[in-house]
User: Fold this.
Amino acid sequence: IETVVYENSVTASKAVAKEIADLIKVKQSQKQPCILGLATGSSPKGLYAELVHLHKEEGLSFKNVVTFNLDEYYPMEPDSVNSYVRFMKELLFDQVDILPENTHIPDGTLTKAEIAQYCSQYEAKIEVLGGIDLQILGIGGNGHIGFNESGSLQNSKTRLVALDHTTRVAASKDFLGLNNTPRTAITLGVKKIMEAKRVILMAWGESKSNIIKKSVEGAVVSQVPASYLQEHNNATFILDKEAASKLT
Ligand code: F6R
Assistant:
């Protein structure tokens, strides 16, 4: 696993945006789609702002980009203020020239009976396109990636999961209290994340420093799903100084 430390999250996010822009352009020149795996939450906000900037100021086109988001709360209506559909539209999709039909986010409106088949179709769509070229990740305080919480297996598939209490507490400020915070979510499984050709995990701030140390320097254990990335051959943790502060 590679770790790269930046002075702050702004410079770090710009570097990640540059890598993504370069990949999009290489794929364009090859007349190939560029398959991106995307995350929500606070960590990638600066990245999406920079990608929007590159589109508006430097003409970066997303016409050949296909995206698959990691997760969505369940149940969740797409037009709800807290939906990841809304997050992605506001911060990225509605501000660039990506084709709406090329964006994919797990559907929070399914019935329980529909979820299993939907999840295998979500994975099949990724496979048909040849897999994820570049996967963006944040990390939960407990080491979750996507909503693969502690205990998620390395070969876990896309599925409905129960959110950890700590994850719900972190989300509860957006939902105006724990009682309104969803208990479940649909997440891409660890297996598809590990199959991505390139993985970039971004983490900012002192509050992530302990879990970053465990994930990078600790044992590879299901308790800390981000530690699985030690076994990925092209994964980089992009950190600010604070998030990296406990690394030896
Ligand atoms: C979001 C996701 C989560 C977040 C993680 C960190 O799509 O998959 O794993 O990346 O909870 O969230 P922030 O960035 O808000 O600290």
